[in-house]
């Protein structure tokens, strides 16, 4: 393998990587360095420390893979509360319904139906370390019911595990950009660091991911702003190696320990921490294939008077690593404490792409407090 062959990385519970909100979803799934909002836990939890409100709640509904099936949906509920001028706590719930599955016996006779689901519950904490910089940490409980099948009227057990996120966020003061004023942002988040999940006898990696991003927000005048953001994403999971095969195409195993013999790449059956470190240099195709494992997202946003926004973006994944490539667009409306955002996904390339007709609607409420607007805090 030279990096030009298909060698996609697969993990358990891939729903953890589905963009859950409309604002960032309309900008090509960027989110490491965008402005903080009620959905920041998914993208970069450390951003919560820079929110200018006391508390907020939000909800998003995402019909998924509508081109293939009619009843797969992602629901997302999130919120945050400011403790003081430097600390914010937040939480979220992701619920992924995989629709109705008909069960049959070996003769093809229907024996019932089953509606599997997966969910994740998050708790996050964000701390400002200075006027410009914050850190965040989040813990996550993950439960997957796709392994539950019925045997003689009984069901199997769901699989579950725990994970954690570490994140950082930087936001500059306003500075001159030509004859305009601008703000620069940057963010880093390593998410879903956790134990493998067991469906049967085998343990599977969860989608540990590193997201690195930067942004620039420019004031066109007193009412209009324009922002551009760029994200890079890499799964911190071992790449499948190339195994030795015999003349019949069967994988050769070692007579000593019974393990599959590898011709290129590294053994993916390693502990989680070793797998994260190994993921940077284990691709069978060398550096060319390693670079293909980095997904790129770019997004732009035009905003008028902080009340109306138009957004667009593009997400790119190598054709050898999954071939997700799509354009996004959307709008947002802000009315006092209420914000409504919508987005729509347009796949690039294949006409029959399963991501066609993917839309999201988000509703959020952000409050300064029950007793009126919060007083501005002195500059640090």
Descriptive terms for the model:
380 residues, mainly beta, Porin, 14-stranded antiparallel beta barrel, two-stranded antiparallel sheet, 23 strands, 6% helix, globular
3D structure, described in words:
The C terminus is likely disordered. The chain has four helices and 23 strands. It is globular and about 70 Å long. By secondary structure, it is mainly beta. A hairpin with a 2-residue loop joins strand 21 and strand 22. The strands form five sheets. It has a 14-stranded antiparallel beta barrel. 6% of the residues lie in helices and 48% in strands. It has one domain: Beta Barrel (Porin), CATH 2.40.160.
Number of helices: 4
Major sheet, described briefly? Answer: 14 strands, antiparallel, barrel
Uncertain residue ranges: 150-154, 370-380
Radius of gyration: 23 Å
What string gives the helices and strands in order? HHEEEEEEEEEEEEEEEEEEHHEEEEE
In angstroms, what separates the terminal alpha carbons?
55 Å
* Tally of domains: 1
Summarize, please.
This protein has 380 residues and is mainly β. It has 4 helices and 23 strands.
Topology:
Blueprint: H1 22-25, H2 40-44, E1 55-63, E2 73-82, E3 87-97, E4 101-104, E5 110-114, E6 117-128, E7 133-144, E8 150-151, E9 154-155, E10 159-171, E11 175-177, E12 180-194, E13 197-198, E14 203-204, E15 209-219, E16 224-235, E17 242-243, E18 262-264, H3 272-278, H4 287-292, E19 294-304, E20 308-316, E21 325-335, E22 338-347, E23 358-367
Antiparallel strand pairs: 1-2, 1-23, 2-3, 3-6, 4-5, 6-7, 7-10, 8-9, 10-12, 11-12, 12-15, 13-14, 15-16, 16-19, 17-18, 19-20, 20-21, 21-22, 22-23
């Amino acid at each position: 393998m030279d990096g030009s062959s298909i060698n996609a990385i697969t993990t358990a519970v891939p729903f953890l990587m589905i963009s859950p909100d409309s604002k960032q979803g309309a900008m090509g799934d960027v989110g490491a360095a965008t402005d903080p909002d009620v959905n920041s836990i998914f993208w970069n939890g450390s951003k919560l420390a820079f929110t200018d409100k006391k508390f907020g709640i939000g909800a998003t509904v995402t019909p998924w893979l509508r081109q293939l099936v009619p009843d797969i949906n992602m629901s997302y509920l999130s919120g945050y509360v400011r403790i003081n001028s430097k600390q914010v706590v937040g939480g979220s719930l992701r619920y992924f319904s995989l629709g109705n599955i008909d069960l049959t016996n070996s003769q093809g006779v229907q024996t019932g139906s089953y509606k599997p689901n997966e969910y994740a519950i998050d708790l996050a904490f964000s701390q400002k370390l200075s006027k410009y910089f914050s850190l965040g940490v989040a813990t996550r409980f993950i439960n997957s019911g796709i392994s539950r099948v019925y045997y003689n009227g009984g069901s199997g057990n769901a699989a579950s595990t725990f994970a954690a996120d570490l994140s950082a966020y930087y936001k500059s003061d306003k500075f001159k950009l030509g004859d305009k004023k601008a703000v620069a942002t940057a963010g880093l988040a390593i998410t879903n660091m956790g134990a493998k999940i067991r469906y049967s006898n085998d343990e599977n990696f969860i989608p540990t991911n590193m997201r690195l991003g930067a942004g620039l927000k420019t004031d066109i005048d007193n009412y209009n702003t324009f922002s551009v953001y760029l994200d890079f994403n890499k799964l911190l999971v071992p790449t499948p190696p190339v195994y030795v095969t015999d003349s019949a195409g069967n994988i050769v195993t070692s007579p000593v320990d019974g393990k599959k013999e590898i011709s290129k790449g590294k053994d993916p059956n390693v502990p989680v921490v070793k797998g994260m470190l190994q993921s940077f240099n284990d691709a069978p195709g060398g550096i060319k294939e390693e670079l293909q494992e980095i997904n790129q997202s770019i997004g732009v946003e035009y905003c008028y008077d902080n009340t109306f926004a138009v957004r667009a973006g593009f997400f790119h994944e190598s054709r050898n690593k999954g071939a997700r490539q799509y354009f996004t667009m959307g709008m947002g409306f802000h009315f006092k404490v209420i914000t409504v955002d919508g987005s729509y996904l347009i796949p690039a390339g294949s006409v029959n792409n399963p991501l066609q007709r993917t839309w999201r609607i988000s509703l959020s409420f952000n409050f300064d407090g029950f007793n009126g607007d919060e007083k501005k805090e002195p500059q640090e």
